[in-house]
Amino acid sequence: MQAMIFSAGLGTRFKPWTDKHPKALAIINGKSLLQRNIEYLQQYGITDIVVNVHHFADQIMEAIETHNGWGSHIRISNETGALLETGGGLKKAAPLFTADTILLINVDILTDLDLAAMISFHQQQQALATLAVTDRKTSRYFLFDGHNTLCGWQNTKTGEERISRSVTPLFPKAFSGIHIIDKKLVSFIQQEGRLAIVDLYLELAKTHTIKGYLHDYSRFVDVGKPEAVAIAESMFV
Q1: Omega cis (within 30) before 16
Q2: Please, are residues 85 and 195 in contact by the beta-carbon 8 Å criterion?
Q3: Phi and psi dihedrals of 2, rounded to 5?
Q4: Which of 51, 141, 174, 213 is the most buried (most CB within 10 A)?
Q5: Alpha-carbon distance values, 159 to 90, 99, 232 (Å)
Q6: How would you label 98-126 residue by residue, b for 16+ Cβ within 10 Å and e otherwise?
């Protein structure tokens, strides 16, 4: 089992910190977001981790080297030449994957989701990918059928809707930025350069099984904006 922590983003919503630092190194109760996620993965025995970098990449690589990967084996996927978004970043990192199953997580997500239970669910469902989701309110949702199979996506602010499988009824769920994929998924990425993971999943959902894993039971915070830091610090010591 391997993991990839997506850490390449510009963090535009997290200014002014990201004017001089990568969001991955933002501090929550004395530990960076990157350190917290590396230690979170360690709780489930996942110590072989790929970290992609772009914005202030040198600061992230220096922190990893200084702290010896906080006890994990870290491989760097360097995107300093061009920001590739999540789908494109996944494709670029492909040569670094040696395991058949890969857990993906955004660096600005903090949660106590039971990864062992999610991994077990993914394996039982024999899905190409499994997406962690909740019933929280947002503006953009993945749409699932009654069997938790991905069928589409919608933006409630713009009214945009994209359907991969014509099924009714559909149930909207908010994506948590945590997903498990079968390594072969990467071979299906044909597009070069920038690619949003949402676009990739919606295309693959037409012909492959992609499942949703509901984790409303767990603590969860998206540290996307500076005001989320206080929330995160109240939830994660």
Answers
A1: yes
A2: yes
A3: -120, 170
A4: 51
A5: 29, 39, 31
A6: eeebbbbbbbbbbbebebeebbebbeebe
Per-residue pLDDT tens over the stretch 117-127? 999 999 999 99
Tens digits of per-residue pLDDT, 179-189?
999 999 999 99
DSSP letters spanning 99-132? SSEEEEEETTEEE---HHHHHHHHHHHT-SEEEE
CB count within 10 Å of CB 137 equals 9
In the chain, the largest separation of any two C-alpha atoms, in whole Å, equals 52
Angle at 185 between CA 182 and CA 191, to 5 degrees: 160
Instruction: Quote the tokens at residue 185.
Output: 């998924």
What is the rounded distance in angstroms from the CA atom of residue 207 to the CA atom of residue 45? 32
Confidence of residue 68 (pLDDT cuts 50, 70, 90): very high
pLDDT digits (tens, 9 = 90+) for 26-62: 999 999 999 999 999 999 999 999 999 999 999 999 9
pLDDT in tens, 135-171: 999 999 999 999 999 999 999 999 999 999 999 999 9
* Alpha carbons 140 and 174: distance in angstroms, whole number: 7
Three-class secondary structure of residue 194 per DSSP = coil
Backbone angles phi, psi at 185, to 5 degrees: -55, -40
pTM: 0.96
Mean pLDDT over all residues of the chain? Answer: 97
